[in-house]
Design brief:
The structure is a single chain. By secondary structure, the chain is an alpha/beta fold. The chain folds into two domains: 154 residues, no CATH class; 143 residues, 3-Layer(aba) Sandwich (Rossmann fold). It is built from eleven helices and eleven strands. The strands form two sheets. The protein has a six-stranded mixed β-sheet with strand order 6-11-10-7-8-9, with helices on both faces. The longest helix has 20 residues. The protein is globular and about 65 Å long. The two termini are 39 Å apart.
């Protein structure tokens, strides 16, 4: 690892937007990369509006310290930005925005957006090694990770994936295990941590508490038919976890939709399983506000305290909770 001689230390600058878990993924990757090249992270926290369960709406702005304690190892500063930030003119840049644009076009099924020019930009050899002597001599390095965490120089900077595989059982490989050490540098504010501690203790002391299974359901953007099929599958899984002899697990169930959670508990969960399901019943967590996101973080870290973690399609909460947790596997379907 490079020794830092400058005071203040040279910086690795990155910006974050999108959902809260996407932001935290990017920050963890930036901390890891900065560690590998002897820098500290300058985080530009961009505002975002208009999505349920995520800050921020109207004129309300936020920053990382709304959710976590300050003085994070490797993080030099956090700037809450309401406009496009000004970057140093001499900052060297790593820009994966074209890769991200190509990925989104493919996921959305928009072939008209996949132009030859975009493909050429997104697939060309544009990797910049921050250990390169010319880069190493630069005071500040700007890296646009977007919502796409990547590996550090030791990984060849070739890992383009927002989250692990979308289906099936995922195993923490060396990269993800390393990333876990960086997400754990973030510590919850005492208010939210006390709630998490209380929830986990109550589950551990209840029947089935020796085996906690955390389940997060992303329900806000699913079509009705998909929702019904998913609900039936999920209800069967929960019943097996709780009621099958030799299983006897306790389930922590979370979702981004209050309507879905209420309906699922009343309509789909079998009576003999209800007593073994814990939820964090705080309606504010569904609000598009800082307070709402603080409450949602309780769900996130309670999931992380479970022994096994399961998430439905699109559940960034379950994938990030898995990084925070000690769980080796994560089931995603």
């Amino acid at each position: 690892m490079m020794t830092i001689q400058n005071n203040p230390p040279r910086q690795l600058i990155t910006s974050v937007t999108s959902g809260l878990c996407n932001r935290l993924w990017v920050l963890a990757c930036a901390l890891r990369l900065a560690d590998q090249c002897g820098r500290q992270v300058r985080l530009l926290w961009l505002q975002r509006t208009g999505r349920v369960g995520l800050p921020y709406e109207g004129d309300e702005a936020s920053t990382l310290e709304d959710f976590f304690l300050p003085d994070i190892e490797g993080l030099a500063s956090v700037e809450s930005c309401t406009t496009t930030p000004d970057l140093p003119e001499n900052a060297v840049g790593l820009d994966f925005s074209d890769v991200h644009a190509l990925t989104l076009a493919r996921q959305a099924g928009n072939p008209q957006e996949i132009t030859p020019e975009l493909v050429a930009k997104a697939t060309g050899p544009r990797v910049l090694d921050v250990r390169d002597p010319q880069v190493a001599a630069t005071a500040d390095v700007w890296i646009n990770l977007s919502t796409m965490p990547v590996g550090g120089p030791g990984d060849g900077m070739e890992r383009f994936a927002t989250y692990p595989d979308q289906l099936g059982q995922n195993h923490k490989d060396a990269f993800l295990a390393s990333l876990s050490t960086y997400v754990r540098r973030l510590q919850l504010r005492p208010t939210e941590q006390q709630i998490v501690t209380r929830l986990v203790a109550s589950m551990r002391n209840a029947p089935g508490g020796a085996r906690l299974v955390g389940i997060h359901v992303r329900a806000t953007d699913l079509k009705q038919r998909s929702a019904v099929n998913r609900n039936m599958h999920l209800a069967n899984i929960i019943h097996q976890l709780i009621c099958t002899p030799g299983q006897g697990a306790r389930v922590f169930l979370a979702s981004d939709s209050e309507t879905w959670l209420t309906d699922f508990m009343q309509t789909w969960v079998r009576p003999q399983a209800r007593a073994a399901i814990t939820t964090y019943d705080n309606p504010i967590k569904y609000e598009n506000s800082v307070a709402g996101s603080r409450a949602a973080v309780v769900d996130l870290y309670t999931l992380a305290a479970c022994d096994r973690i399961y998430g439905t399609a699109g559940s960034s909460f379950s994938s990030y909770a898995w990084l925070v947790s000690d769980a080796e596997f994560w089931i995603h379907s």
